[in-house]
Amino acid sequence: MEAPIEPIIELRDADIPRLYAVTAAPIIQDVQLKISRGDFWAIGAFPGTGKTDLLYTAAGLQRPLKGKHFLFGKDTARMHEEELVDMRLKIGVVFDTGRLFGNLTVAENLALPLAYHFHLPAEKRLQTVEKVLQAVGLTEIANERSAQITRNLHQRVGLARALALNPEVLLIDNPLLSVDPRQARWWLEFLCDLNTGRTPLRKEPITIIVASDDLRPWTDTARQFAFIKEKSFHLAGDRESLKAVQEPILRDLLMAFD
Amino acid sequence: MDETFAPADLLPSRVPNPRFLRSYLNWIGRLILRVVRTIHGLGAFAIITVGVTITKFWKASGVVHPLIITQIYRSGVRLLPMVSFLAFALGLVVIGQTVFQLTRVGAQNYAGMVMVSVVVRELGPLMTALIVLARVGTAIVIELSTSRATGEVEALEAVGIDPIHYLVMPRVLGTAISIFALTVYLIIMALVSGYLFIFVQDVPLRPGEYFNQLTNSLGYPDFVLLALKTLSFGMVIATVTCYQGLARPVRIDEVAEVTTNAVVESIIACVLLDALFIIGYLII
After folding, report:
1. What is the count of structural domains for chain A?
2. For labelling alongside A109, which of A176, B4, B10, B130 has CA 20 to 30 A away?
3. Which range has highest mean pLDDT (A128-132, A231-235, B114-118, B189-193)?
4. Which residues of B touch A119 (CB under 8 A)?
5. By C-alpha distance, which of B144, B129, B136 is closest to B232?
6. What is the extent of the structural domain holding A241?
7. Chain B, nearest residue to A120 by Cα
8. Which residues on chain A are in Cβ contact (under 8 Å) with B152?
């Protein structure tokens, strides 16, 4: 008999706080979520319903108001700060606007976390940065200040920055928001390759969780689906189950602009 | 004549309007709460900063230590021309106002003592701190609050970089070292420019005598207190400005307001600190 696969991220009865909220009212209540190694999740929700807050909590950047949060099988509430930081390094977060360090170049954005965490020789660090930039097709803008690059590349640089730390999980917030169709195709194909371990960066699959306002592009790419409705988190199952779910909000998320 | 009319009826009533009184008391109450909250927040932020500085000073030194050097350059080296001008003016003003009067009563032997009391103990450190606050402190608030508003701080946390270690510690240490060094520079320049004025005014005071007066007026505690005072000013200014920039999420349109708050709080904190050091001088 096979041993049960331990989830790498788990939220159990978790109340998700609103980012920077003054009040302690949760934005999503009683979240039950288990992310296993190799999963590709697409979480659909309309703007302002708590997607970003959920990703922040799942990544360990904020604690749930209630309930449990486990990273790689360990309860984050019992972790020492240093241990939590070590865990977080295995989780790459790609923000919706990239959130790049504006005074640094694109290459420096990638090199900073490497230099901070690892005592790598400068040459080795440069090699890693070049390798990641090449994989995401951004070599040409490596030396440009991140504040000066076109806005729809910000999130791609954010993805490169997350990948430079060789994460096991990627949490990506609305990657297809405000990108042109060609870039949208690039994102879908590249994330699919990362999830199946077909990139030169990493041969092992990377677990991916995407939050999006529009689930349509993800129906052929993601394998697990969920959605947020009126402060509650709902699992929608796999691709086949998704078609069967008769939830109006999910229908809306699947035909957002039809 | 109408007996019911009196000129006093035209004057506003002396009885305070209860609504006005209530709103005034509310305003005072809110002000007190705000002050308490600020002191509480600042205190906690300062303790965290000290803790991070002690525990993580050697962590990622290749990344963080060059930031301290950069901060020293920004808040120290780049301010040298302005401090030179100010030191020159300070020497002339203090000597101009005091030595001339002292000479009239034949008390020019006290010129050195006046310079030490006014420039070394009081004006030198405080003026340097205020210049650094105006030129660098404001820049720190704007820089950090903009970083906060654009989400760079969260991005640092997401890649496992402690914002206090990466953003605050270098600024606090760099600013403290800069204010100390700039104050020493300002004092030396002011003392020299002061003597220039004495020389120009034809006051019968030889350089050797002036130097002797200075050394006789300066004691060992002056050096210790000067170092403590300037380092404290630097730490206070950097901590307050970093706190205002980072402690709470701000929108871009709030950046101006937090900058003003930081300047006001820094000035109040420096003046209070200065008062403490005056007590220290009096005790010693």
Report:
1. 1
2. A176
3. A128-132
4. 62
5. B129
6. 11-253
7. B62
8. 99-102
Q: B67-120, pLDDT tens digit by residue? A: 999 999 999 999 999 999 999 998 888 877 787 787 778 777 787 888 888 888
Among B142, B152, B159, most A C-beta atoms within 10 A, so best to mutate, is B159
CATH code for position A93: 3.40.50.300
A52 is a domain residue: yes
Taking an 8 Å cut-off on Cβ atoms, the answer to whether B159 and A113 are in contact is yes
Q: Token pair of B208, please?
A: 């050797």
Cβ distance of B159 and A101 shorter than 8 Å: no
Tokens matching residue B145: 């609050």
- Residue A76: C-alpha distances to residues A71, B20, B127 (Å): 7, 52, 48
Whether A3 is covered by a domain: the verdict is no
Q: Report residue B23's pLDDT band, with 50, 70 and 90 as the boundaries.
A: confident
Indicate if the pLDDT at residue B61 is higher than 50: yes
User: Within 13 Å and on the Cβ side, how many CA atoms surround A252?
Assistant: 11
Q: Is residue A204 part of a domain?
A: yes
pLDDT digits (tens, 9 = 90+) for A123-156: 999 999 999 999 999 999 999 999 899 988 999 9
| pLDDT bracket for residue A2 (50, 70, 90) | low
Q: Which residues of A78-110 are buried (b: 16+ CB within 10 A; e: fewer)?
A: ebeeeebbebbbbbbbbbbbbbbbeebbbbbbb
The answer to whether the CB atoms of B249 and A20 lie below 8 A apart is yes
Interface of A with B in 73-102 (CB under 8 A): 85-86, 88-89, 92-93, 95, 97, 99-102
**B177, two tokens:** 């070292």
Q: How far away is chain A from the Cα of B169, in angstroms, using its nearest Cα?
A: 15
Radius of gyration of chain B from its Cα atoms, rounded to whole angstroms: 25
Instruction: Tell me if A5 is assigned to some domain.
Output: no
CB contact under 8 A, B151 and A85: no
A25-30: which pairs have CB atoms within 8 A and are 24 or more residues apart? A26/A65, A26/A66, A26/A231, A27/A53, A27/A231, A28/A53, A28/A54, A28/A228, A28/A231, A28/A232, A28/A233, A29/A231, A29/A232, A30/A67, A30/A232, A30/A233
